[in-house]
Design a protein that fits this description.
Structural class: alpha/beta
Oligomer: single chain
Number of strands: 8
């Protein structure tokens, strides 16, 4: 069911409505904390509907050796990638919501509990230790440290309000689906035929 009120209200939709939107969307933005499952969800939808998969980590933010691109270059890349006709983009960075959200047909916020996000980053570290995940830039082998664990543990408190403010400012009636469990994610994928 759509929930909306006030001039800057976020238009939340349920899983069935979002599934209908996914089936016909040209551009989908997937946001949320590291380890929540954004990349897995995005890649499954990309494969199912022939959308270009864009990873902010891989395609915009990082260079080999965990070196961040210059901010101006990041901005240029975001503008160019967002101008594409058919994509699903995985990455939160609220500073570019003004560019990315208005171009999106649907925003999916993967808003998992923090313990699940910590579990997600630990399990991907175990799985990819010594290697680089496909959604990460080449030359950035999987790593984990206390600062990253703290970032994930405090993400909702620090970045949740920024996401809400960014959506209120830039979503302008766009449908926003919030997924709060792995089961909800599976339900969405099953409804759109991308569950496998």
């Amino acid at each position: 069911m759509d929930i909306e009120s006030g001039p800057n209200a976020i238009r939340y939709v349920g899983i069935p409505a979002a599934a209908d939107k996914v089936r016909n969307a040209d551009r989908i933005l997937v946001i949320g904390c590291s380890g929540g499952g954004k990349s897995t969800l995005s890649q499954k939808i990309a494969r199912r509907f022939g959308l270009a998969y864009i990873s902010i980590d891989r395609d915009v933010l990082w260079l080999p050796g965990w070196v961040q691109r210059e901010k101006l270059e990041q901005h240029r890349l975001i503008v160019a990638l967002t101008a594409g006709e058919r994509w699903i983009m995985d990455g939160t960075n609220t500073s570019t919501f003004d560019i990315r959200v208005p171009r999106s047909d649907l925003v999916i916020w993967v808003r998992m509990p923090r313990w699940l996000c910590v579990w997600g980053i630990l399990s991907r570290w175990i799985t990819n230790r010594g290697g680089t995940r496909p959604e990460m830039a080449p030359g950035c082998p999987e790593k984990i440290d206390f600062d990253f664990l703290r970032f994930v543990w405090t993400w909702e408190k620090v970045y949740g309000p920024r996401v809400l403010a960014g959506l209120a400012a830039h979503a302008a009636g766009k449908p926003v689906l919030v997924l709060k469990s792995r089961r909800e994610t599976r339900d969405l994928l099953d409804l759109v035929g991308a569950g496998a």
